[in-house]
């Protein structure tokens, strides 16, 4: 139904954006929209073994200071780590630094949290709203160096569509 994977590893992100808007329709729920997003990405991009969300929640207080952590949300793939503190692993780094992190080889990333030993490369994009990190989108691949600048740009624009259509 949504076969947008071309012969190369790059899907048509403009078409995916139209499909995403159509799939989300007028629904604004966090769970339904992030679940649909995960399924669309997982089945439209080639060579993935995991795609999904971690959402920001309050963590255990650290020395009286409030801390935040990432709690597993809707995803496609094998069972994964449930909670990731801000600053830990690729997801926690993207959340703490409020920037997209592309890792060509996860085995060379200090502190990488290996949920699935099949993962070799990864992209994590934070969900930013008014300066706050609402969560992250995490996508893993068994291929080394799977995620290009074009993928980063395409995925970031898909997330903009998701965020505008969803009540967080
Ligand atoms: N690899 C991630 C952990 C999450 S799983 O891959 C789904 C990380 O280091 O943040």
TrEMBL record:
Any one Gene Ontology cellular component term annotated for this protein: cytosol
Domain of life the protein comes from: Bacteria
Organism: Undibacterium oligocarboniphilum
TM region positions: none
UniProt name for this protein: GAF domain-containing protein
Family to which this protein belongs: Belongs to the free Met sulfoxide reductase family.
Residues making up the signal peptide according to the UniProt record: none
PANTHER family: FREE METHIONINE-R-SULFOXIDE REDUCTASE, GAF/PUTATIVE CYTOSKELETAL PROTEIN
Source lineage: Bacteria, Pseudomonadati, Pseudomonadota, Betaproteobacteria, Burkholderiales
GAF domain boundaries: 48-162
GO MF terms, alphabetically ordered: L-methionine-(R)-S-oxide reductase activity
Gene3D superfamilies: 3.30.450.40
SUPFAM superfamilies per UniProt: GAF domain-like (SSF55781)
């Amino acid at each position: 139904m949504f076969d947008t994977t071309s012969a190369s590893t790059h899907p048509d992100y403009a078409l995916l954006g139209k499909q995403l808007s159509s799939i989300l329709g007028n629904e604004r729920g966090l769970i339904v929209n992030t679940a649909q997003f995960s399924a669309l990405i997982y089945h439209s991009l080639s060579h993935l073994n995991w795609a999904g969300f971690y959402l920001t929640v309050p963590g255990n207080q650290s020395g009286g200071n409030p801390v935040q952590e990432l709690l597993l949300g809707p995803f496609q793939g094998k069972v994964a780590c449930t909670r990731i503190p801000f600053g830990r692993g690729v997801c926690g780094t993207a959340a703490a630094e409020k920037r997209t992190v592309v890792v060509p080889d996860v085995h060379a990333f200090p502190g990488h949290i290996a949920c699935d030993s099949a993962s070799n490369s990864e992209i994590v994009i934070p969900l930013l709203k008014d300066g706050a990190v609402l969560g992250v989108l995490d996508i893993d691949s068994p291929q080394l160096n799977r995620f290009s600048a074009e993928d980063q740009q395409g995925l970031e624009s898909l997330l903009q569509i998701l965020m505008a259509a969803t009540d967080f």
